[in-house]
Amino acid sequence: MNRDDFPILKKDIAYFDSSCVSLKPQEVIEAMNSYYTEFTACAGRSSHAWGEKTTSEMEKSRKILADFFNVKQKNTIFTRNTTEGINIVAASAKGTVLTTDKEHNSNLVPWLRLKQREKISWMILETNETGIQMDTFESLLEKERISLVSVHATSNLDGMSLPVKEMAKAAHKHGAKILVDGAQAAGHREVDLKSWDVDYFACSGHKMLGPSGMGLLYVKDPEALEPLMLGGETVKETWLDRYELEDSPHRFEAGLQDYGGIIGFAAAAKYLEKIGLSKVEKHCQAINEQITELASAHGLDILGNQEAKLRGSITSVIPKRMKIHELNLLLSKSAVYTRSGAFCVHSWFNKHNLPGAVRFSAHLYNDESDVEKAKEALRKLKGIL
Ligand SMILES: Cc1ncc(COP(=O)(O)O)c(C=O)c1O
After folding, report:
1. What's the predicted TM-score (pTM) here?
2. Pocket of ligand 1, beta carbon within 6 A
């Protein structure tokens, strides 16, 4: 699907590492470059034509992204990545935070540190092959006075998704807020934050066809959240003994921003919208089903639910005989790019006493030719996997 829009794919690689970083279509590259070749300047400061253009492109991009997630501009904050978004929320966290046992380190380590410093209490909700037990979640909310639930929408480990809309409803019923790590959901399926009704949502542009090092944080009630960093652009006025904070979102965006990245990020959202998120979702699922069939045919153990449809665009496998890094290397020698290791979810692998896995993660540019390459690469390894 639309493979020709991705100039890097002229290299004839079967790229299955999109959960880490997705490839960028020409439209995104051009949008980003326009900032460097046509109007390089600071936003919100310089009144010359390039300055005004940068300011207007930045705010236009914010509007495109706010619309993409069905929220308002004042609630849409530019960050570098999902990790930064989660850390901004964590910096103001109090009370008891509940996460699952299958969170990316970005949604684990900030809470562990706060717990070690005795700033919060921290609880874990167990996941299983179908996701979570909603009644266990509700009873934790009821008994433990949880103040914040912080969970992934889709796991980067096994592609399983959580029912975040229902979880938000339950959290609110019990007076808790909810932060959703949307790193693997954004750009893979429709994300309507108004309907999800979450309090915070963090995602990364580089996982949704946008430039690397761009992210977004949605905050429902920005007045109730402390900015993590302060400096230029975050204040309306300063005196030697005080400062007056800017309104949201600018109070959260300290210093000069990655304007080229912001413009490219919006171009990625426009590109995805033009194709249609439900088409993207179905396409990735179809590719993932074929990868699952291949993996099963070669006797590889698949993490998470065995039903490919439930794993969106991710199939993580463990070979029976070969080491995971060896399999990853041999695949890459056949021009099939996957990722091996713990995918920053070390805690889950440690809990299950597993060595890590090899992950195939697809996006809209993957097609039959990639599946064929994977098939051929695995065929060569038959008998030693
Ligand atoms: C589920 C999940 N959360 C958080 C992150 C962190 O994203 P970033 O490195 O872009 O901040 C990732 C990255 O792989 C992820 O998959």
Report:
1. 0.98
2. 19-20, 81-83, 104, 106-107, 152, 156, 181, 183-184, 204
